[in-house]
Amino acid sequence: EVRGWVADAAGSDHEQLQWQKYEDTTTAYWLTYAPQPVTYIDIGPMVHDLGCHPEGARKREGGGLNRPPSNASFVVHNIKSPAAFDFVWKHVRGDAVPYEHDEC
Question: Which residue intervals of 33-93 are DSSP H helices?
């Protein structure tokens, strides 16, 4: 069932960016039909979109959906470039560095 859906989503009649645009739907579908049981836990406070802000040092510790990453981030969503991946990695490690807005 999942293989058929994946084949359809990757088909030639879909946009090249299909997976990037619908990654939330894809993940939910995969979890729903996973071959093994999936245990759900509330990780809401640790999951957020990447968001840069002049007050990022304060905002990254204060929650909110769009904020810079910190070493308390479990999942950072909406990372769209290699430079952004590098930035997130540098800030989520155990020895995370202070937030610098010009680098975000």
Answer: 56-59, 82-92
Per-residue burial over 68-90, b = 16 or more CB atoms within 10 Å of its CB, e = otherwise = bbbeebeebeebeeeebeebbee
Name the more confident of 17 and 3.
3
pLDDT tens for residues 54-75? 999 999 887 788 999 988 888 8
Amino acid at residue number 17: L
Listed in sequence order, the DSSP H helices in 1-104 are: 2-9, 18-21, 23-32, 56-59, 82-92
Quote the CA–CA distance of 44 and 64 in Å, as a whole number.
10
Note if the pTM is more than 0.70.
no
The length of the chain is 104
Residue 84 has pLDDT above 70, yes or no: yes
Dihedral pair phi/psi, residue 21, rounded to 5°: -75, -30
